[in-house]
Automatic annotation (TrEMBL):
This is NAD-dependent protein deacylase. It comes from the Bacteria. The gene is cobB. 2 residues (Tyr-53 and Arg-56) present in a large hydrophobic pocket are probably involved in substrate specificity. They are important for desuccinylation activity, but dispensable for deacetylation activity. NAD-dependent lysine deacetylase and desuccinylase that specifically removes acetyl and succinyl groups on target proteins. Modulates the activities of several proteins which are inactive in their acylated form. Keywords: Cytoplasm, Metal-binding, NAD, Transferase, Zinc. Pfam families: SIR2.
Length: 230
């Protein structure tokens, strides 16, 4: 039974109305990474960072999964081998679509983290710099998302999945951010067949056995139907 390991990026949530980072007009065209997605930026102006994530959290709670999220949940439920979904996204659309045990390597907008004691709790819809940690009471609450310069979550587990993968799939990622950008190469070393599904060729297209270009809500269901029907 083939083990399928899937990496998703912002492109899978684009058709659910959530902006990507590096497309024209994307988040990084409108915000400076160093201001809103680094520990230094948070230390400098926590209110600005909270406003940035509060806006994304409000959008994410209103967003609905699209056929690509639904197809992956269907694959997990129906495939006779293991299907592991690793996402760079901080929205919860995979879970809303019914996916199980999703690995959020960059954290989640729905989570809050204490910068003083590492306590974690369910984030309120809007967070602010005065929010106190429910455990240590420090006014050091931050979104539980991984910023540039920080280590992504569950990397040891992810590496094991990549080494065991028979098929590795990347959906909706530009392949510009490491370590996720290196996942296809690691899966290749383990002998995996690699499939990229993206709106356009990415920085890592050369790492794949095949690339299927198109909108995720169109190409992902087609691929899932092939896998389940095979
Ligand atoms: N269907 C499929 N792919 C799409 C769609 C769509 N409807 N719309 C956009 N894409 C593709 C784009 O062509 C692009 O290659 O999705 C990719 C999005 O790339 P990025 O915006 O760079 O997002 P991502 O690769 O997920 O970024 C990785 O960078 O800023 C950090 O932490 C952030 O997790 C993020 C990481």
């Amino acid at each position: 039974m083939r083990k399928i390991v899937i990496l998703t990026g912002a492109g899978i949530s684009a058709e659910s109305g959530l902006g990507t980072f590096r497309d024209a007009g994307g988040l990084w065209a409108r915000h400076r990474i160093e201001d809103v997605a680094t520990p230094e930026g948070f230390a400098r102006d926590p209110a600005l960072v909270h406003r940035f994530y509060n806006a994304r959290r409000a959008q994410a709670v209103e967003a609905r999964p699209n056929p690509a999220h639904a197809a992956l949940a269907r694959l997990q439920a129906a495939h006779d081998g293991e299907v592991v979904i690793i996402t760079q996204n901080v929205d919860g659309l995979h879970e809303t679509a019914g996916a199980q045990n999703v690995i959020h390597m960059h954290g989640m907008l729905s989570g809050a983290l204490c910068a003083a004691c590492d306590a974690r709790w369910q984030a309120p819809l809007a967070m602010g710099p005065g929010d106190a940690c429910p455990v240590c009471a420090a006014r050091a609450a931050r979104p539980d998302v991984v910023w540039f310069g920080e280590i992504p979550y569950r990397m040891v587990e992810i590496g094991q999945h990549l080494d065991e993968a028979d098929v590795f799939v990347a959906i909706g990622t530009s392949g510009q951010v490491w370590p996720a950008a290196g996942f296809a190469q690691q899966a290749a070393r383990g002998g995996a067949w690699r499939v990229e599904m993206n709106l356009e060729p990415s920085d890592i297209t050369g790492d794949f056995s095949e690339t299927r270009l198109g909108r995720a809500s169109e190409v992902v269901p087609v691929w899932v139907a092939e896998v389940l029907g095979a």
